[in-house]
Amino acid sequence: MTSQQRPWLSCSLASRTTVFMVGICNAASNLRKLAMPSEDLYIDMEYFQQTTMNELVNKVIAETCDCATL
User: Fold this and answer.
1) Sign of the C-alpha dihedral computed for residues 24, 29, 33 and 37 taken in this order
2) How far apart are the first and last CA of the chain?
3) Would you say 57 and 8 are in contact if contact means Cβ atoms under 8 Å apart?
4) Would the pTM count as exceeding 0.85?
5) What is the rounded CA–CA span in Å between residue 10 and residue 65?
6) Alpha carbon distance 35, 43 (integer Å)
7) Where does the source fall among the domains of life (predicted)?
8) Which residues lie closer than 8 Å to 14 by C-beta, 6 or more apart?
9) Second label for 18, Cα 20 to 30 Å away, from 5, 35, 46, 63?
10) Domain residues of the chain, as ranges?
């Protein structure tokens, strides 16, 4: 597997699940309900900075992966 083929999540979920993220500004008051696979994964992000993206990745790993100890 090359670096371009490596999933951005280092767990079994990443190899079988595509993560798709869209930012919608002021489009809906209940975007949390659209979070998949769980509303717990919703994070309200205003700025897509590296730190914020790392926090999102860590939250997804902690909530969905069997490798949350990474």
Assistant:
1) positive
2) 20
3) yes
4) no
5) 8
6) 9
7) Eukaryota
8) 7, 8, 65
9) 46
10) 12-64
Confidence at residue 63, expressed as pLDDT on a 0 to 100 scale: 73
**Residues 57, 22, 37, 5: is their CA dihedral positive or negative?**
negative
| Digit-coded pLDDT (tens) for 22-44 | 555 655 666 666 666 666 666 66
Nearest to residue 13, comparing CAs of 70, 59, 61, 69? 61
Q: Which residue has the tokens 């798709």?
A: 20
The full length of the chain comes to: 70
- Residue where the block lists tokens 């914020």: 52
Q: Which amino acid is at 7?
A: P
Q: Where are the alpha helices (DSSP H) in the chain?
A: 12-16, 50-64
